[in-house]
Protein: Malectin-like domain-containing protein
Amino acid sequence: MASPPGPARLAALLLLALLAGPAASRFAPADNHLIACGATAPAVLPDGRRFVPDSGCASMTLRSAAPALPSAAPGAPAPAPPSPLHAAARVFSCHASYDLAVRRRGRHVLRLHFYPFSPALASACFHVGAGGFLLLHNFTAPSPVVKDFLLPVDADVLVLTFVPEAGSAAFVNAIELFSAPDELVGDIGTLVAAAGVNRTDGLSSQVFETLYRINVAGRKVTPFNDTLWRTWVNDEGFLVSKESSSSKAWSFGGRIAYPKDSRLMTREVAPDNVYNSARSVRSDGNLTWDFPVPARNRYLVRMHFCDIVSKALYQLYFSIYVNGHLAAKDFDISSTTGYLAYPYYIDYVVDVDDEGMLKLAIGGSKMSRPGEASGFLNGLEIMRMNKTGGGMDVDFPAVLDMGYLVSKGFGEFARSLLCGLVFAGLFLVFVMLVLRLRTELKNNGTLWFSQSMDSGDGKLAKAYQLVPTKTDY
Ligand SMILES: *[C@@H]1O[C@H](CO)[C@@H](O)[C@H](O)[C@H]1NC(C)=O
Ligand SMILES: *[C@@H]1O[C@H](CO)[C@@H](O)[C@H](O)[C@H]1NC(C)=O
Ligand SMILES: *[C@@H]1O[C@H](CO)[C@@H](O)[C@H](O)[C@H]1NC(C)=O
Ligand SMILES: *[C@@H]1O[C@H](CO)[C@@H](O)[C@H](O)[C@H]1NC(C)=O
Ligand SMILES: *[C@@H]1O[C@H](CO)[C@@H](O)[C@H](O)[C@H]1NC(C)=O
Structure:
């Protein structure tokens, strides 16, 4: 009775499959700001993402010729920067803020790209705040760096503020702000201390700064291959005893099995490329990694496990040590997941005091068969948590005004006067650079003082207007 599907129906099915394919495999954040600061044209990354210029703002644009500045003869072609995002920067001589529209409140990933292509940028010292948190304090970027944060956003606008330290400037090359998937960090973790382990909650109101993302025994994972455009690096540089005969590296060609319809364990937590490699240890050994971290901070240590090592369930039992403390004894991954090749992670919270070193270890157990793999690890993330006052490095210094609205007082007036002087100095340097490079300054002289946001750029540009808070003179 059923008629064979006609060509029209087949075409419709094919179209549906095509439409559903990318939607199902790619995470689509509700908020997705990708900004190439100071750029004049959109920058497209190898991972396919398109960063749009932050045009229409009242500050300086450094063009791609700038990286060659110290040595290049006038007219010589500049060497191509490593990333299209590194070709330009936005430089601030005073308090400045980006207002980023937020459609969906909740946790967001914020990445700030710093590529100091001139000595002035490499020595710039400044502070960066967002949503009431002090993310970077007295920060300098002498070499290229991406600062990666996960922060709660509880407003319709996220104000990202740059404050230069006295006599310095602030800069940024690119900004990513996108909605984090709900399952990325839960509210509950396991607090590990000398006294033992305990449950801790309130993680969802924290800011996290990712210091390490490690693909144990695996290849570097680039944003191209990561579901949230992250970078994961190999663990060998942090491994304490590489030559140990009791450890072994594994890689897996099969399929990583994600729980069906699970809201907690998805490919956004970590990509397959992290779960399909691991390092194992036998029952008589330990695998230890050391990570230098800033002292006197609280950390979230996420350990990723996926049993690609065993041939059958219930073969592996191991201990987990966090900062020298026993966090789990004879941990049985099979009972926890119920399947092989099934990803799982544990969030440990730990305080690092004066030693400035975070030690993580996996130890074998006598419950496992001697001579066989006993414990393993696939991936690691180490994230610094904010301090009580809302600062990352330090408690939020009261003197540092990261506020968005300028209060008009004499202090403000004096500060803006000082700012104006620094500003004029920077402007002079800029003019000299322009002359030296003989590049054409396409924008007219009102660039610095322009208050109008370019309406020609439409809605997108409106969403993240740069707000010069102290340049209205
Ligand atoms: C930044 O560091 C300098 C030198 O260490 C210090 O004098 C200054 O007070 C710091 N700035 C803030 C806002 O803490
Ligand atoms: C665990 O936390 C609870 C509540 O904060 C506390 O009463 C208990 O003493 C803690 N246990 C340990 C072993 O620290
Ligand atoms: C992405 O992952 C695949 C498979 O692991 C690998 O062959 C490829 O080189 C990776 N691409 C990039 C750009 O990292
Ligand atoms: C592994 O390390 C832990 C903690 O440092 C230690 O207690 C244990 O004895 C070690 N096991 C072996 C087999 O070296
Ligand atoms: C981080 O900041 C939040 C919000 O200000 C605060 O509730 C939390 O206690 C802070 N974290 C720590 C470890 O103090």
In short: The first strand starts at residue 32 and ends at 36. The longest helix spans residues 410-437.
